[in-house]
């Protein structure tokens, strides 16, 4: 049986869609830190079937909007003295900036390299984003930061 101890103070990123834990781990650059981090992949979940979990034994500034874009079903637990001090439920952000890139070769962002890559949430039910400049639908499931 796999056993990961509880953390005293830090963050637990829970209910991550199975397979997305590594994306978040890489986005947060957790491979370069000097404190304890646990990435648990494909853990059993009554709600999701399988899920990923990240436990971070440290305070960390996290952009919840980007995590909400990656997976809006994530729950963030802020741990203080080994108990949950605060629980944050994420959702799809209304807009995102410089997280994904427009793939339309005729978009102004393809020509103007210093222009911010901005997208707005066009369909919350589908999780669909469109470019602010050319209205191109973002279709890729990967992201670049």
Query: CATH architecture of the largest domain, please?
Result: 2-Layer Sandwich
List the strand order in the largest sheet: 2-3-1-4-5
Q: Provide the gyration radius in Å.
A: 17 Å
* Distance from first to last alpha carbon: 36 Å
- By DSSP (H or I, 4+ residues per run), the number of helices equals 3
Helices and strands: which structural class?
mainly beta
CATH H-tier superfamily of the largest domain: Aspartate carbamoyltransferase regulatory subunit, N-terminal domain
Q: What is the string of SSEs from the N terminus onward?
A: EHEEHEEEHEEE
Count of folded domains: 2
Structure characterization notes:
The protein is mainly beta and about 140 residues long. It has 2 domains: about 10-90, 2-Layer Sandwich (Alpha-Beta Plaits); about 95-140, SH3 type barrels (Roll), CATH 2.30.30. It is built from 3 helices and 9 strands, in the order E-H-E-E-H-E-E-E-H-E-E-E. It has helices spanning about 20-25, 65-70, 110; strands at about 10-15, 35-45, 50-55, 75-80, 85-90, 95, 120-125, 130, 135-140. The strands form 2 sheets. It has a 5-stranded antiparallel beta sheet, with helices on one face. The protein has a 4-stranded antiparallel beta sheet with strand order 6-7-8-9, covered by helices on one side. Strand 8 (about 130) and strand 9 form a beta hairpin. The longest helix is centred in the N-terminal third of the chain and has 7 residues, at about 20-25.
């Amino acid at each position: 049986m796999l056993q990961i101890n509880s953390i005293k103070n830090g963050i637990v990123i829970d209910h991550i869609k199975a397979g997305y834990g590594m994306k978040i781990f890489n986005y947060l650059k957790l491979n370069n830190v000097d404190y304890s981090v646990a990435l648990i992949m494909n853990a059993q979940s009554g709600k999701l079937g399988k899920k990923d979990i990240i436990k971070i034994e440290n305070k960390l500034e996290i952009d919840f909007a980007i995590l909400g874009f990656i997976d809006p079903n994530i729950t963030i637990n802020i741990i203080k003295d080994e108990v949950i001090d605060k629980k944050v439920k994420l959702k799809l952000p209304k807009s995102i900036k410089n997280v994904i890139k427009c793939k339309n070769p005729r978009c102004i962002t393809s020509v103007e390299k210093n222009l911010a890559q901005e997208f707005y949430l066009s369909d919350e039910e589908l999780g669909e984003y469109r470019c602010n400049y050319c209205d191109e639908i973002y279709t890729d499931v990967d992201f670049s930061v």
